[in-house]
Write a structure and sequence with these properties.
Layout lengths: L1 H20 L14 H6 L9 E5 L7 H8 L5 E6 L2 H13 L6 E5 L12 E7 L8 H13 L1 E19 L5 E2 L9 H11 L4 E16 L2 E15 L2
Length: 233
């Protein structure tokens, strides 16, 4: 439990700092623009009253554009995050972008968040599932996502795997601060198991490498980012 608390605390410090110093949709950080895969999914849901769930929404990098896209279709997006800083900023941004009536905020650990059966047309989880408490919890969350998706609904996942961290100054390998860090092949196996029988829209792996800060020290983070978009048939 101590290790989990340490990881959570370090991730909180990193995200709190990012949300404080970088404004949504301004250049300079990963908050600059939404994930293209998420935005590309929206036209595939050609219906009114779309209901979306964003697990690990942050300050609304994806939630705000989704809300803007479904606003005129009487849509709704439920945004779930554990960090007060994320939800506070998202509360401000939803006012700024005039989508306050579309976005509903929920403070929760996504590992604990209950999803009603067949309640959502689209569930997205971008770089969030790997931050649940354990691999067992990950399995529980994915089962809830599967059960919580309506027929012909979609899930859009981006999951990090085989994460490595290295101190920039010393080139020393560090223990990755990631709650669930499993092999890429094993993550794919898990995805295919839970989404057996679903239509695969997109699946690919992209190796990523970028610099982050840990305790004000530069760290290189490497990951195999898995993109997995599926439709319930």
């Amino acid at each position: 439990m101590e290790k989990l608390e340490y990881i959570r605390n370090e991730e909180k410090k990193y995200h709190d700092s990012c949300y404080e110093h970088y404004k949504l949709f301004e250049e300079g950080s990963w908050l600059y623009k939404p994930v293209k895969t998420v935005i590309d999914v929206l036209p595939l849901l050609d219906k009114d009253q779309i209901k979306v769930l964003d697990l690990g929404c942050g300050v609304g990098r994806n939630s705000i554009p989704i809300a803007e896209a479904i606003k005129d279709r009487n849509g709704k997006i439920v945004c779930v995050d554990l960090l007060d800083s994320a939800l506070e900023k998202l509360g401000q941004y939803r006012q700024e972008f005039d989508v306050q009536q579309v976005i509903e905020l929920e403070k929760a650990d996504i590992g604990d968040y209950q999803i009603k059966k067949a309640d959502f047309d689209l569930i997205i989880a971008v770089s969030s599932l790997e931050h649940v408490a354990s691999e067992k919890t990950l399995d529980i969350v994915m089962k809830r996502m599967v059960d919580g998706t309506k027929k012909k609904g979609m899930n859009c996942l981006i999951v990090n795997s085989e994460v490595e961290e290295m101190d920039v100054k010393t080139n020393k390998q560090l223990e990755p601060l990631m709650e669930v860090n499993i092999r890429t092949a094993d993550m794919f196996k898990k995805l295919k198991k839970f989404y057996h029988g679903w239509e695969i829209i997109t699946q690919h792996v992209k190796p990523l490498k970028y610099e982050i800060a840990r305790n004000n020290k530069p760290v290189i983070l490497k990951t195999n980012a898995i993109t997995y978009v599926v439709r319930k048939i």
